[in-house]
Amino acid sequence: MAQKPSIPKGTRDFGPIEMARRNYIFDTIRSVYALYGFQQIETPSMENLSTLMGKYGDEGDKLLFKILNSGDFLHGVTDEQLHSESTNKLASRLCEKGLRYDLTVPFARYVVQHRDELTLPFRRYQIQPVWRADRPQKGRYREFYQCDADVVGSDSLLNEVELMQIVDTVFTKFGIRVCIKINNRKILTGIAEIIGAADKIVDITVAIDKLDKIGLDNVNDELRRCGISEEAIQTLQPIICLEGTNDDKLRTMRQVLAQSETGLKGVDEVEYVISRLPQLANPIELDLTLARGLNYYTGCIFEVKALDVEIGSITGGGRYDNLTGIFGMPGISGVGISFGADRIYDVLNQLELYPEAVSTATQLLFVAFGAAEMDYCLPILHQARQAGIRAEIYPDAAKMKKQMQYANAKHIPYVAIAGETEMAEGKVMLKNMTTGEQALVTPTELIEGIL
Hints:
Blueprint: H1 16-35, E1 39-40, E2 46-48, H2 49-52, H3 57-62, E3 66-68, H4 79-84, H5 87-94, E4 95-99, H6 104-113, E5 122-131, E6 143-152, H7 158-174, E7 178-184, H8 185-194, H9 201-208, H10 211-214, H11 216-225, H12 230-240, H13 246-256, H14 261-275, E8 284-286, E9 300-306, E10 315-320, E11 334-340, H15 341-351, E12 364-368, H16 371-386, E13 391-393, H17 400-409, E14 414-418, H18 420-425, E15 428-432, E16 438-441, H19 443-450
Parallel strand pairs: 1-5, 7-8, 12-13, 12-14
Antiparallel strand pairs: 2-4, 3-4, 5-6, 6-11, 7-9, 9-10, 10-11, 14-15, 15-16
Helix pairs in contact: 1-7, 1-15, 8-14, 9-11, 13-14
């Protein structure tokens, strides 16, 4: 017997019910983005590796899916090179393209490439899949969708405020209780300065960003492996574990960072954003352990955690002042957020928060017993569709039991039956599959009864 086909680990198939739910997620996010004046773009699934490499830090670069060059990808590579060169160096010879790791770097490339066509500030959103060569686990996939919104060409912190309002609006619409976490890379830079480890800012941020995942002791061990002194690590402890209200934390950090101009600027930026969000339905919290490990963030950074489900971040983002400079356009600031559609999907499933109508595709099924009955039903089917009712007709002459089983299997709420009696009166028998009630109705009454 032939082996049953499979799909790569970290990827998933989605059937009709799943796709209806996913489209509910995408449509909800898309509608909120549109309310705030964002315009949609798309970029290719694959980018030149020169576009992607070096933008995500060493850890991110390792997770890039690289694509072998077309044709004879070993052309020009000697046996000695093939067996002696490092994996990364060999990959650079064999691969010129890679699958996109996120939507932000391709967006930065898009802005630079299409600069003359854009009106700044440019507000774009993008809903597309991304790929990461990560180890699959619960809530972590190798192929997943991101739903990004970014503003480029504006330094105003009002953009951060509006992005947090978007986050709050989206999750309120979903009915998911979340905590919005905020920090600032300038605060983290200031912390590195005052502990005498300014040159270790990347190592420090990567380590403390793992606090929720690996715990304080393991974070400290990682800091030691990175060459952070024991004195500096001890100085970090009360900062990493700081508790209290946002106002308490801000006051404390002003004192701690009194000698760091950069750190104080970060405190000012966080205070500006938080102070303008008093009406959020979900709490916003200053979290000094939030680091967002990607190197391109330079200002406020955000993550969103679901309060009722054990899962990783379901939204993240931040300010990046220097990203377009990598592509030859310095001085263009940007800020963005990314909703993790796949994790949101898992949260909605676990909490059973989908509206009932989301999973119902067909509303009305016409049951017919032969060619004459089908010909009779077709004009009524057309009227129903014209009225906006999602309707179908069973395409084969089959027994009533089989057609009703089909309706039940697809959770179709209404069935219209046409036999000799109904046809003689110019009507159909409309059955409510939920209540079992049925009535002989005209085509107009059928449409009114469903709508």
